[in-house]
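In these records, each integer encodes one residue's backbone shape. Here is one protein:

___
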Amino acid sequence: MANRFGRNSVGDGVQQVLLADEIEELKGLTATNRDRNEAETRHKIINVVLHQLLAWPKNRVSVEENISPGYADYILKRLSGDPILVVEAKREGVYFTLPIEKVEKTSGYVSLAKLLSDAPIKAAVTQVRQYCIDIGAEFGAVTNGHEWIIFKVFDKGRRWDALQAFVVRSPAYFWDDYTEAYNSLSFTAVSDKFSLVQLLQSATPKDRSIFYPKDGIAAYSHQITANRLAGALRPVVNRFFGVIGDDDPDFMNRCYVGEREYRPAIVGMRTHLQDSLSPYFRSFGVSQLEDTGKGGQIGGRLTKNIKHGRRGEVLVLFGGKGAGKSTFLKRLLHHQPPKWLKDHSVVALIDLLKVPESTSVIRDAIWDGLVESLDIENFLEGERQHLLRDLFADRFSVATKQELSGLSKTSETYNVKLNELVAAWKADKKYCAKRLLEYWRQQGRGLIVVIDNTDQYSGANQDFCFTSAQEIANEFECVTVITMREERFYNSKIHGVLDAFQNAGFHISSPRPATVFRRRLEYAIGIAQDPARWGELSAGSDRNITADCAKYMRILSAEFAGEKSPLSHFLTACAQGDIRLSLDLFRDFVLSGYTNVEEMLAEGAWKFQTHQVVKPVMTPTRYFYDELQSSIPNVYQIRHNRNGSHFTALRILRKLAKNFEGSSPSYASVAALKAYFVETFNMAEDLTKNLDMLLKHGFIEANNRIDYYDENVDSVKITNYGLYMFNELAYNFTYLDLVCTECGIFSEEVSNYLSEAAKEEYSLFIRNERTERVKIRVDRVGRFLDYLRTEEARERELFSLGMPEQEMFSSKSQETFSAERQKVVGSAKRQAKRRAKKTRPSH
């Protein structure tokens, strides 16, 4: 939208297009003789630059403010009122002698030491610097309207006159390089984007080459063989550890978990952070849904609507990704509906999970599903006379007076015409749905329409689904239920799509993963122990395979019963309330070739160690880890080539891990995070890329539940997954072992070492030399940690962090590694002896 200066905001950095007369005005003002006094210079040149070209609002600029013993010409302030930049104005006749550039440029960098050799510059800079120190402004500037010198007043650990100043050599800078000028010096850039910090950073980053160890490993994409039971178990886990089907009521009734997590709480680091209603949604009157077995408040709301004939209401069931919204609704309305609701309603459950992302296709799927659900008695497939009598009587009556008038009922023309009309009426889905609904109302039944799995679509199509739900509710005077993720509600609300939404919202939390796994495992074990049901398992009548599968599943079930199970803890933390993802990760674990099935079966019981869980879940089908192929990200990855760090993600998590109210994590301002990372590290882009990764993988949570980074995310908090990563997983030997070959490395020598060590380890894997392979892995992780320690020490000095060594991430990693290395090598030796004993010939 154009503002009063005729500018239009376009894209990142708010590039603005000036009106031609503004440019011409500035050109004209600076093209004349430089004979204006200070007041005229300020009024006719500097004010134009500040207020018109750089869009500084006048209420953010103080003029002639007293700072004893003088007056500051301009003090530019943030919205909070804090001073940012003090500008000292001189008459345009005061010439600032700047060092000559070999190439004619309108702007550039010059050290303050060189600039201070010019007497007028020294006097002006010294004066404005003192003003800045007195009022706490970080930046100063001097200008005569033609030349501008902008500098940082203070930098920890450095002489101020050794800093670089940004110099505008000619007013032509403001039109020839307007985008750069605006993105560096405008009110929006300075106050919101911290542009002066980046413009005047004391340690301008130099491009550093990044090397990737995986590029030197030919076998990096090698697939590993699944475990011995995988062939028999794959159909079992696909059926019992996936979505519960509509045609499997016994599975639904036996395995549905109604106990859900209602209250956010942390007890130590091993308690699940419950998926709860966010403050944003509570403010809109959304209620936390307690699953009583009869649908809780939403079941009661549906029953009351049908009983009392309430018409045209849309209920929204909110829940995170994989929280079980679909399963809840299927059980409530399909498998185990409350008796009164079952006897007095007809339900249209429209599942859009497999419907392509196209508005026209979605529309057809909704109306086709509605008609199919209402046509329980197959009217539309019945004989024509029954259709005309029971369903299409109104249109048939009109047609006899119009299209069929004068035609003999026994004539071919009559029947052809009538068939055409019936086909057209059947194709009119809205009409068919209305007629079918009228039939059911005569039977004393009300309509409940559910539009499910809309959260797979992009924003516009999710909005279309919601407006379709409203249309159906209004058109048919019925109650409609639509499932929605919280972040889509936020986006739709701010764009006005949900303006009609009031308080008809319910939030469902995810069940406890350990309970879900145990119930499903026990159900599958029960089938395996019943010979009459063996046909339901892939093992069929092979008693030995079936027995082994049942034994394996019993071991896993026992593991989930333990309060301190590494398997349960890891899956719960990584899934972060997404039961669908948790089940996916579990399927990978169960089938992976890294899972020690043979040892488990031989022992009859098994106590899992963390490293025995991490690798099968992080890279279940590949020998080497690849972030793009894994559900678990690499928090040490370099995400911004120019100015990135291995530690940005962990620094974000550390900031948020300290942000607690009582026992629960509280939301922290993204603007405050950005200020810290820009002012301390000058890593704005690296910050946003890491925030995006952390949100997408559930390490942090936005207050509006958007699961990616954009400008609408204004505050975030750490999740249980984030705490688990920050406190444990990031320093785990197996995690470091997997990610080190995938990391970008600033040292070519270290990268080459990691590549060669990985290739040697792989060759030992092929030869099944387990103990030697583990020794190489230990050495490789040690070398990677030495490299991280060097990088973190370099950053501590470069950015003057002043943190004690024991608080460095690499120190914690080294401490954990020292404790783990003997355990890992010892475990490998014991397993090697166990295998050797089993293969030793008997005498």
In short: Confidence is low (pLDDT under 50) at residues 1-19, 262-277. The chain is about 50% helix and 10% strand. The longest strand covers residues 70-77.
